[in-house]
Amino acid sequence: MRLKANLTLFAVAVIWGTGFITQAVAGHYHLAYLFNGACFILAAVFLIPFIPRGIKIPRTQWKWMLIAGGILFAATALQQVGILYTRVANAGFLTSLYVVFTPFLLWLGFRERPHWIDLLAVIAALVGAYFLSSAGKGLQFQNGDSLELIGAVFWGLHFVVLGKFASRFEPVSFASGHFFVTGLLNFVMGLIFEHLGQLTPLPLIGAILYRASLSIGIGYTLQVWGQKHTPPTDAALILGLEAVFAAIAAWLALHQGLLPLQVMGCGIILVAVMFSQLKSLLPANT
User: Fold this and answer.
1) Across residues 252-269, what is the average pLDDT?
2) Distance between CA 42 and CA 110 in Å, rounded?
3) Helices (H), the chain
4) Per-residue pLDDT for 284 more than 60?
5) The domain containing residue 36 runs over which residues?
6) Within its chain, how far is the Cα of 39 from the centroid?
């Protein structure tokens, strides 16, 4: 069962990583909010048939679906707008920093002190993010990279909320509900800043269908199942490969190459993400 779960999570990492290509397609058409809105609303609808029949959703669940959906809206909006101004590989690796930020969010919100390994991981990840964004040519991040970095904090916050509160409720209904909130907020923003007519090109429609069904609908559902049958360290390391597949997909499909120093930055970030998970293998008093 553990091997099957690990292979499932590996498939999720591939799905999520290649899903960044669909976001690059949306970026080509200068779309962010409407694209996100369509994807998440469709994903919410896609999950409805899988919600157990006769389930009653308590008032507390509605509250946390709204909160989680609002946080996910911020994360997805920052990520998609950032992709308009940076490379897919940058977006994938910078988003993966949520694994490093999460322990510090737990410390701020729940007084769970971070391990000394987390501090080293953050320092290493920031160094890697600098190399990836600037290629060593300057001290300032590109605009898109800054948005991706801020978005990674919201991805971490989303991870914390799901771990602390969503686990109390039926998972499919919670996923569908907070996806709908995310999609609705994105769609409202899209109606303000974008035009519905921008959603009509066939490549964009294909990207929406892929991301809604696979990246969001199936990907998140398989993640929930996989993490129930494999240790947290295995899950984090395997899902961290999302960033690698995003870079590979961008290289193959979009011909987005990276300079050697940027490749080194990617490697440093990936090592930092993996290193931050080693604490679960150490004794509790270290």
Assistant:
1) 80
2) 34
3) 2-28, 33-47, 59-83, 88-95, 98-110, 116-134, 143-164, 171-193, 202-210, 219-227, 232-239, 242-253, 260-275
4) no
5) 2-281
6) 14
- Asked if pLDDT for residue 163 goes beyond 80, the answer is no
- Scan for tokens 């976001």, then name that residue: 23
Confidence at 280, pLDDT banded by 50, 70, 90: low
For residue 65, give the amino acid letter: M
Residue 230, CB-side half-sphere exposure with 13 Å CA sphere: 23
Q: Among 199, 252, 254, 212, which residue's Cα sits nearest to residue 26?
A: 199
Query: Is 52 part of any domain?
Result: yes
Top-ranked range on mean pLDDT: pick from 74-83, 122-131, 151-160, 258-267: 74-83
The DSSP output letter for 32 is S
Residue 286 belongs to some domain of the structure: no
Q: Rounded to an integer, what distance in angstroms lies between the CA atom of residue 16 and that of residue 25?
A: 15
- Whether 264 maps to a domain, the answer reads yes
For residues 259 and 243, give the distance between their C-alpha atoms in angstroms, rounded to a whole number: 17
pTM, full prediction: 0.83
Q: Distances in Å between the alpha carbon of 124 and those of 54, 101, 112?
A: 49, 12, 22
Residue 233 falls inside a structural domain: yes
**Angle (nearest 5°) at CA 151 between 146 and 156:** 135
Q: Which of 210, 178, 208 is nearest to 72 (CA)?
A: 178
How far apart CA 180 and CA 35 sit, in angstroms, is 14
CA distance 119 to 8: 30
Q: Which residues contact 283 (CB under 8 A, 6 or more apart)?
A: none
**Total count of domains within the chain:** 1
Q: In percent, how much of the chain has pLDDT > 90?
A: 33
The confidence band for 281, taking pLDDT boundaries of 50, 70 and 90, is low
How many angstroms separate the CA atoms of 24 and 59, rounded?
38
